[in-house]
Amino acid sequence: MSKEYTPHIVAAPEDFAKVVLMPGDPLRARFIAENYMENPRLVNNVRGIQGYTGVYKGTPVSVMASGMGMPSMGIYSYELYRFFGVDTILRIGSAGALQADLPLRRIVLGMGTSTDSNYAHQYHLPGGFAPLCSYRTLRTCTEAAKELGYGYTVGNLLSTDVFYNDEERLPEIFRSVEAYGKMGVLAVEMEAAALYMNAARYGKNALAICTISDSLITGEALSSAERQESFTEMMELALLTAKKLTDRD
């Protein structure tokens, strides 16, 4: 078994399953591996970005952290797609609601992503690009959600590069976020657009499965501890989706 060395992953291609779950937080990756997988083994820990491969209900599945933001997601998803034979990446993470009727802990599936990022500039496109998920992956995920009895909402996400803004510009930033909400965008997060663009560029599959952790409309919010370990429905939905996708191939 020869190791493949990239700047951020040291593993053999066969160390990863065809479907990889990608939370932002390495501790969430470990939580999923230790609580849901049989015989999980650590396959990557470069820079503390923990990656595990194990078995979920008889099917090989991997989980590895992406870190925060589109640059980090862009790096890890690129390397997994290009060098480690991964076919599908399921982003699992938190999102902030931009619609008043999205309660905390609601699962949101990102059919597409709007973005304020310049990530697409590298492709030298003559206009804008609409990053979309893979329809087959989305359909499989909705089937899994119905099987589990979990509620969900499907729609557009906003992937932003900025978490903290210049205080003097906060009113302007809030107006821009509200403008996305007026266009029907469900929630804001920080990784999905880069993931979807990498998947599109290399003929791979991707889907963002997010849980509402706070609301930019109502001001409600969950704690960091609740975000790390309480989003079990999202985790179970992603795992069942991974199993269904793998078993059908």
What would you note in describing this structure?
- With 249 residues, the chain is of the alpha/beta class.
- The chain has seven helices and eleven strands.
Key structural traits:
249 residues, globular, 5-stranded mixed β-barrel, 7 helices, alpha/beta, two-stranded antiparallel ribbon
Shape: globular
DSSP helix fraction: 25-40%
| Helix and strand run | EEEHEEEHEEHEHEHEHH
The main pleated sheet reads as: 5 strands, mixed, barrel
Strand order of the largest sheet: 7-10-9-8-11
From the alpha carbons, calculate the radius of gyration and give it in angstroms.
17 Å
The number of strands is 11
**Average residue-wise pLDDT:** 90
In short:
This protein is of the alpha/beta class.
Strand and helix layout:
Layout: E1 4-5, E2 10-11, E3 19-23, H1 26-36, E4 38-44, E5 51-56, E6 59-64, H2 70-83, E7 88-97, E8 107-115, H3 135-148, E9 152-159, H4 170-182, E10 187-189, H5 192-201, E11 205-215, H6 224-229, H7 232-248
Parallel strand pairs: 3-6, 3-7, 7-11, 8-9, 9-10
Antiparallel strand pairs: 1-2, 4-5, 5-6, 7-10, 8-11
